[in-house]
Amino acid sequence: MSAQGGSSIVVVGAGVFGLTTAVRLAEAGLKVRVIAGAPPGETASGVAAGMLAPAFETALDPPGGASLPLMLAARDLWPALAERLGVALDRSGAAAAGPAGWLDDLEVRLATLGLQPEAVGRADLEAWAPGMNPVFGRGLMTREDWRIEPRLALAALVSRLTELGGRIDHEVLSAEAALAIQAPLVLATGIDQRLSRLAPELAALEPIKGQILHRNDRPGPARVIRTEGAYALASGGGLLAGATMEAGRADRIPDRGAQAGLRSAIAGLFPSLPTAGWRTRVGVRAASPDGLPLAGCSGREGLFLAVGARRNGWLLAPLVADIVTAAVTGKDGGPWASRLDPSRFARDDGEGRA
Ligand SMILES: Cc1cc2nc3c(=O)[nH]c(=O)nc-3n(C[C@H](O)[C@H](O)[C@H](O)COP(=O)(O)OP(=O)(O)OC[C@H]3O[C@@H](n4cnc5c(N)ncnc54)[C@H](O)[C@@H]3O)c2cc1C
């Protein structure tokens, strides 16, 4: 079954996956209703740093970046989307600085991926990030990594959807209520398992709690700076430092103990920064076993999935939205659709059924 222009569809979830997919579906001519428990700004998407970072993510988080070409393909969909949304895309690049052994290792990893970072000296590092540890005498810089401001982009996605005739209702949907909906359904529910009765594929997702620190009394660096165990960037007029990766944790409670590694990495980057004065934001990522999303048809007729973004939901959202829109409208999902097929983790019951 495929939905054609003019037919109705419901998207559950108003994070970056839900809203980007909703916008793509509306652009394809469908009547889109989004149902979401949390307002967009209070989702993992609203907490995120907004890095669109195929290079450093592939090098620094191998489980999430198993495929550099896929990550680059997703990133390259951003300029057109950002233009349609009217949001700024920061394409100035990102830099890395840190202990010599870590930086050398990163350089080798980038080179192995076929990426050639530029070598930058102390003067550039100091200009981009005043107060950076003077021990860090050199750095690496890549123009492959970009950034978007998540809260502005979420607001722009909501505006674009509304402009295209879509609407958003705030409600936590139960499995019973979801089953009663007489329209194709896209689940973009992040880590939430309330609807896993409808889509057993969701059981493959594991939570990874992420705590990110923000302070308004210092401006952030002019470029995203990666260091061993942390990154720092400018956001909302202040400094954002992230992020913890707490596998298996799905609570949204700030936990100072689990921030120790992150705080120490940021103190190593900016030694004169006061240790007090940080505010914590928490989000929970949803990760599949291979670190890539589940995007496309579920095993259930009329049900589609856009979940499992791990660390790269912002980067991957336009690709996921295109693949899901193609699945809904019965079109070819393109070269990455099979890689993100939601059935890839389903167990075979011995009779060829998942
Ligand atoms: C600290 C941190 C930093 C990050 N930094 C980056 C980054 O720099 N770059 C990047 O690309 N990614 C980053 N990420 C990852 C990114 O934030 C996530 O991958 C992405 O936001 C996931 O988006 P999503 O739409 O799948 O889920 P979410 O944003 O979690 O949204 C899920 C939505 O589903 C709704 N929902 C769930 N169940 C129901 C239900 N039963 N009924 C109704 N609504 C329901 C929720 O209310 C919500 O609206 C970061 C994540 C964290 C935590």
UniProtKB/TrEMBL annotation:
Q: Name one GO cellular component term.
A: cytoplasm
Keywords of the record, alphabetical order, are:
Oxidoreductase
GO MF annotations for this entry?
oxidoreductase activity
Q: Is Oxidoreductase among this UniProt entry's keywords? A: yes
Residues covered by the FAD dependent oxidoreductase domain: 9-326
Give the source's domain of life in one word.
Bacteria
PANTHER family in the record: GLYCINE OXIDASE, SARCOSINE DEHYDROGENASE-RELATED
Q: What is this protein called?
A: D-amino-acid oxidase
